[in-house]
Amino acid sequence: MEPRQLGQQLRRLREWHERTLTEVARQVGISKALLSLAEQGKRRLPFKVLRHLLSLYGASFAMLGSSVCPVARSAYGGQVWQGTNLLAVVTDRSLQGSVLRLLRPVQSSEDAEWLELCLRAGSQLPPEGYWSFPTPTNGIAIDGNLLVEMPGDELLIRSGESFHIRAQQPHCYRNYLSTSIRALLVLQHAVL
Fold it and tell me: Ramachandran region of residue 129, left (φ > 0), alpha (ψ -120 to 50) or beta?
């Protein structure tokens, strides 16, 4: 996903909701100039700000990523999609080199999100604190050991092990290793 494409989609969402730059910028806690530059594809936004902005519009990263990345090939009865790295459009330096790849298109909030998570050594997602989703999350560690931290608890998932996080459970994903790790995440509904 390129910043220019993301910016066009953000502008369309804002205009569809009949909101002004000033109004939206104030609500998400950024300057009008930064929002304008983001909509022009000239600046990227911090992960937290982009999530807040999409929530304000009732959209998700997955729906946005699906709308700007077309199907690579299609055949009768099926399709192949290259996926898109949802972290490619954020500014957070702590996430550089990490990937949150949407593995299949999501057209509505009722679709499941299939995500490949690749965290570089010493990184965490989200970059600060925890996040929680209104839907359960299932996953499997593919390469390396994934640490899922929750307030007052943690869960170490070794390569090949699967896990489940209940709906509304605050959590974050951490890589404490000196090498990158990979995991597959499936959210029952598009909420990221």
Answer: left
